[in-house]
Every structure is written in C-alpha cells, then in structure tokens.
Amino acid sequence: MQIQWFSSKEKVGTASFYNTNITLNTIASVPFEYAYRVQVGLDEQGNVVVRPLTKEKVQSGDLDEYTILQMSVKKTYSRISSTMLMKRISEALGITLSDKPVKFDTTWDEVENILTIHIKK
After folding, report:
1. Cβ contact 24:77 at 8 Å
2. Residue 12 confidence (pLDDT) above 90
3. 74 to each of 25, 32, 97, how far by Cα in Å?
4. Which of 19, 57, 68, 96 has its CA 20 to 30 A from that of 81?
C-alpha cells in the first residue's frame, strides 16, 4: 500500500513585512523550527528568499558573518528583526514599510532549501 503524506511545507504561507521585521505565519515558519540562524536575500525575479542555517554551517567560517541573522521562532509565528535589513529590502523592492504589515505569499523549496517570499509588483 502506497501512502502519500501531506506536509505543512506544501501549503502557502504568509510573510508580513514591517519597517522593523519580517514575521512569518505558522505555515511559513515550519522549515525554521530547528534553524540556528538564517540568511535573507533577493533572487533573480526580485523575490525575497530566506535560507535556514545550521550551527555547523555558521561556525564553519564559509559564510560572510554580516549576512547571518537571528530568527526567533515561537509557537504560532517566527520573526527576523532588523531595521537595517528592512530598510535595504524596502529600497531594493521600491516598497514603503511601516508599522502596518505588507503581506506576501510564501512557498518552501525543499530542493534549494529556501523559503521564497513572492513579491507581487
């Protein structure tokens, strides 16, 4: 008997951008439950990507230490807090961020091991 298990990583999550942080809902947070740190960047399509990092990867010295960020993971959400990061994202994407959330859909790419936050222009 062949069984196909359903995973919460297959669902569409939500990322909320504020002027001080990125907040991921429960679904988008699943891949980060055991992450030690994260990296945040932009892909070729202008989407924001978040990659979980293990403690071993961070301590290996292979990564630029200034690209490594902390993420706090709670029961119902996770958050990357950095005013400087959000200012750079705002400038790169041409969006205005404030204390009111700007929400985007997210998807998890298990092959690339990244969460993509889909920016709709």
Report:
1. yes
2. no
3. 10, 10, 23
4. 57
**Mind listing the pLDDT tens digit for each residue in 18-27?**
999 999 999 9
CA 58 to chain centre: 17
pTM given for the model: 0.87
Confidence band of 8 (pLDDT split at 50, 70, 90): low
Which stretch of DSSP H or E encloses residue 88?
A: helix 83-93
- Rounded CA separation 37/96 (Å): 26
Q: Using CA atoms, how far apart are residues 65 and 27, in angstroms rounded to an integer?
A: 28
Give dist(CA 51, CA 37) in Å, integer: 9
Sign of dihedral through CA atoms 42, 48, 51, 52?
positive
Residue 79, both tokens: 């958050």
